[in-house]
Amino acid sequence: MHHVVLDEWSRRSSALHRFDPRAKFIVLVVFLVVVATTQRALASLSAALLLLLLACFAIAQIPLAAALRRAALVLPFIAAFAAACWFAGDPDRALALALKSYLSALAVLLLMATTPLPQLLAGLESLLLPRFLLTVAQFLYRYLFVISEEAQHMRIASLARAPRRRGSGMRRGLKEAGGALAVLFARSHARAEEIHRAMLARGFAGHFQTLTRRRFTGLDALVVATASLAVILLRLGAEGLAK
Amino acid sequence: MTRFFGSCYSEGAVHIPDGFLSPPVWVSLDVAAVPVLAGAVRRAQRRFDEARLPLLGVMGAFVFAAQMINFPVGVGTTGHLVGGALLAYTLGASPAMVVMSAIICIQALVFQDGGILALGPNLLNMAILGVLAGYVPFRLWGGGRWRRPAIFVGAALSVLTSACCALAELFLSGIRMPPAMLAVSLVLFLVSALLEGAITLAVIEALQVLAPNAVRRPRMIGALGLVAIFLAAVGVLFASTNPDGIQRLGQVAGIDGYARRLFSTPFTGYETALFANPWLRKATAGLAGLALIYSACALIFRAAIRKRSA
Amino acid sequence: MTPAIEVRGLSYRYEDGFEALRGVDFRLDHGESIALLGPNGSGKTTFVLHLNGLLNGAGSIEIGGLLMSRANLAAIRRKVGIVFQDSEAQLFMPTVIEDVAFGPRHQGLSPAEAADRAMHALATVGMAESAERAPYHLSAGEKKRVAIAGILVMEPEILILDEPTTFLDPPAQRALTALLAGLPQAKIVVTHDVRLARALCSRAVFFQNGIIVAAGDVEQIVARFDWDIA
């Protein structure tokens, strides 16, 4: 499963893995804004940025081909809209859509391949996202794998019991789907109840207390400055060359 | 071609990637999303204290897992659950908004499904407006004889609303589409919406048997609900047949000029697109009108509910 | 000498009316280890959930002399640690160390102290190198050990284990048994695993339909109720 591989990549160690998640996130946003607002010289800028991203993946020791392939998962969606623009007479926009969204997806993938999601979520709290929402996301991610597996098992079990019959009708299919989901819902609910008990048993008193907060170091600030500058300079350079 | 398109829309939820929206659209929606999300979080906090956070997370994981499963629902189609309405019917509107927001954030980060800069628009479309559109019919009619249609319509509306809002944002950003493709898209949206309604209803009905306390039972507001529908229908009719009328209303109220100024200053080039193109003008006027009527109805209900419970 | 646990006349009825416990009397002395045996649904887990106040039935419960009440709840939960059957629900934090440190953090320790204690506890169960790992990636046996660490870190006087060897393969079962045998706390072990009961416990009680029908030597009880699988 996609998220399992990404989770594994994010727990490796390399120079990129060690930087503060907040630093990496800020650089990502700068990158995305630069890409999103580019009007001219998109092709040359895209090439330069692609090389930059590939270099980063290499430093982070993430397999390049696999990374490129994963980012390409956005392509079907893009292709539909790019085609729409093409046929409506706007081929430039079609190309722009494809380049921009692929690069953006690759950049996000780089962040997530070098930062475990729980760490990123914890870091985002200092970037002023509501803690309530972030904690929900933490628990969601924690149990995502577990419940996905349960859902897969249920699906396999139901397929094993009742092989697909032609013409079995929409009604029955819906009923089975509804029933299976309801069971998964109830199990998830029961699990949540157990988690609640486990929390109470270990002294939870109404407020989540987290472990150590990472400190944003001078090195992290340097990384933010350098990387952002690099991206912006590439953009200015590409536009300058295009003149 | 249709098949290809179908695979993109089969999810029933349109996550807009980065690079699709124009800066005025994504910047303004990112900014707008902040207070709205904060509001939803605050409301959810009132209902669920921190001890219940794992429940919200686990329910989010459930919806996420459910979204990844293809359900063969016969007739050669497979269904996917989007889940906003289901969450609203079991957890309540604002907790559902928070859970959907968490889902969308994780989809954007972990699966690159939807952009990061586009989080504002995606959250507004799916986690806020979609959930709200799904919740209103349930709140109005979920407590009585019309419960099952209310659930079906609510779930369908939630998907339809999110998809149409996403499409509108894409058009506002200058994405062009041949009319044939637009028609196909709308049909596919409708199909996803109907599927969502059917699956949501199936799950709720199964839950009634398995875990009856899981699904909420809103108090009936019956008569006022009919008034709301009537007003909304009139509003839609009015907006669609007389968009210039609404615009004139706006002019009279001084809003039109203000809106023009608001758009023209930082967004040169988009002002012309927005106000010169007659199709877009009608669309925005229609949407604005609907929004006004929707909010008016919401305020009326709020007052009525308060009166009832007093 | 006050017993570690003293229960008198404990009764509990579920919301749907089912009487899970019908007047249970129970006593555990300091340093003692008792196995709770009995068929599924006889009330063993329900009973155990009362011992740290997760369920609230009728009757009296005294933990180390403290009467079970709202005021004493926090203190009691520090004395009694329960390792639940489902480790997945028990390890609910994103990483191993955060989970083990959960107890100390919520007892008021600073992040540094909590992390320190957590590392010690992890070392005790042999999972110190897995501190930064996500619970999802652990095997069933590793999860169980981390769960135990998460309870040991709170320095309880009494350790309750609900079906600890379920889902474990034989080597993991052996390792777990050895680990538990080396812990000095008084223990209550809910189990179907007679070998575990024999290895850890001196006494056993037999639950049936919500009451304890017999108490005595582990071998006595096993023989009387034909509870061995061989």
Q: How do the strands and helices of this protein lay out in sequence?
A:
The complex is a heterotrimer of chains A (243), B (310) and C (230).
Chain A lengths: L1 H9 L4 H4 L2 H16 L5 H18 L4 H8 L3 H13 L3 H24 L2 H8 L6 H31 L8 H32 L16 H25 L1
Chain B lengths: L1 H8 L13 H25 L5 H15 L3 E2 L5 E2 L4 H8 L1 H18 L8 H23 L5 H26 L6 H32 L11 H20 L1 H10 L2 H10 L5 H7 L1 H32 L1
Antiparallel strand pairs in B: 1-2
Chain C lengths: L4 E9 L5 E10 L4 E5 L6 H7 L7 E6 L2 E2 L5 H7 E4 L3 H4 L5 H5 L1 H5 L4 H15 L14 H13 L5 E5 L7 H12 L4 E5 L3 H7 L2 E6 L2 E7 H7 L6
Parallel strand pairs in C: 3-8, 3-9, 6-7, 7-8
Antiparallel strand pairs in C: 1-2, 1-4, 4-5, 9-10
Q: Can you describe this structure?
A:
The complex is a heterotrimer of chains A (243), B (310) and C (230). With 243 residues, chain A is mainly alpha-helical. Helix content of chain A is 77%, strand content 0%. Chain A contains eleven helices and no strands. The longest helix of chain A has 32 residues, at 170-201. Chain A starts with a helix and ends with a helix. Chain B has one domain: Arp2/3 complex 21 kDa subunit ARPC3 (Orthogonal Bundle). In chain B, helix 4 packs across helix 7, helix 5 packs antiparallel against helix 6 and helix 9 runs antiparallel to helix 13. Chain B is globular, with a radius of gyration of 20 Å. In chain B, 45% of the residues are buried. With 230 residues, chain C is of the alpha/beta class. In chain C, the strands form two sheets. A six-stranded mixed β-sheet of chain C has the order 6-7-8-3-9-10, sandwiched between helices. In chain C, strands 2-1-4-5 form a four-stranded antiparallel β-sheet, with helices on one face. At the A-B interface, helix 1, helix 3, helix 6, helix 7 and helix 9 of A face helix 1, helix 2, helix 3, strand 1 and helix 5 of B.
